[in-house]
Amino acid sequence: MQSQLTYSAEELCRLAATVLETRGVPSDDAALTARSLVQADQRGIFSHGLLRLPLYSEALRLGGINPAPSMTFSWGGDAVATLDADGALGQVAMQAAVTRVIEAGRKHGIAAVAISNSSHYGAGAFWSDQLADAGFLSFITSSTGPVVAPHGGLTKVLGTNPLTLGAPSADGWPLTADLATSNGAYGKVIAAKNEGRPLPEGWAVDAEGNPTTDPEAAAAGSMIPFGSHKGSAVAVLLEAFASSLTTATYAFETVDIWSNPASRMNNGHLVVGIDTEAFAGRASTEARIADLQQQVRNAGPAGKTVHAPGDPERIRETEAGSTVQLPASTADQLRTLAQELSIPSIL
């Protein structure tokens, strides 16, 4: 395990926002994106944290991400809309979509926004948490670059196609499932490469289809869907949900910014929110979800607590408090980036 270094979350947010502003991102959008990355690191999701800031910076510099987009909503009905994000940071596009879903969901009980021309939006729980705070159940997914071969295949047809499901709870912590549909997120392959460590077995195959734990060989080969043919089926359907409602590209049509930071990826996202108040009522639903969480936690043998979905990340965030522990390799990259941009660094 690589050593980790501890920093102030507030200072890391300021550093990340300054990097983005230096690349032309408006201050509010920069602050939003910085918060999403730092929160991921606080929760131990290093694959979706500040590890990605140098990539965002380079894509902003080369045109793969538009720092100041002119996003356009088109309403397909009272409760549904599409959003052309104009190459925006995914976090900026998602914030606009989540806000609209909550507004429309309050009126109609359910709402959805499908997004095109976007980019990576960070950890999905950052968005499902907002919906849970508003009393909404949520379904969120996205297309990505091509890194996953379907079950039985060798060609990288699919992305890691994340799935985030969230539900509000009287417990105080939402019930949250936030996962890639590959055995590991692609950011974890990058992290393993940066840190000089192998991947877990069963995550990837090389270009010839042989199992590999080498991150370099995995990048040249493909990631494996979780759950064999069942997980592969879920990944394929999420690709359809994320991209087919708009002009967003499928993964196999996309050049990933990991490969070419100048690429406009045209990622598709889908956000669906269900207002619990419109059904049995928010208080009733949140009480029932809290009961479900507690039953899961109590399901272990005597003296052992089972985690409900989302618990491990929340526990890490709570323990972190106002600090962030970064892998040393990420801290090194951020230090280099700050130097290149002549930004004062805390690292």
UniProtKB/TrEMBL annotation:
- By its UniProt entry, which SUPFAM superfamilies does this protein fall under? L-sulfolactate dehydrogenase-like
A GO MF term = oxidoreductase activity
Q: Which InterPro entries match?
A: Mal/L-sulf/L-lact_DH-like_ah, Mal/L-sulf/L-lact_DH-like_NADP, Mal/L-sulfo/L-lacto_DH-like_sf, Malate/L-lactate_DH-like
User: What residues form the membrane-spanning segments?
Assistant: none
Pfam families attached to this UniProt entry: Ldh_2 (PF02615)
- Keyword Metal-binding assigned to the entry: answer is no
Coiled coil (residue ranges): none
- Provide the alphabetized UniProt keywords: Oxidoreductase
Sequence similarity: Belongs to the LDH2/MDH2 oxidoreductase family.
Q: Which PANTHER family match?
A: MALATE DEHYDROGENASE, OXIDOREDUCTASE-RELATED
Official protein name in the record: Malate/L-lactate dehydrogenase
Species whose genome carries this gene: Arthrobacter subterraneus
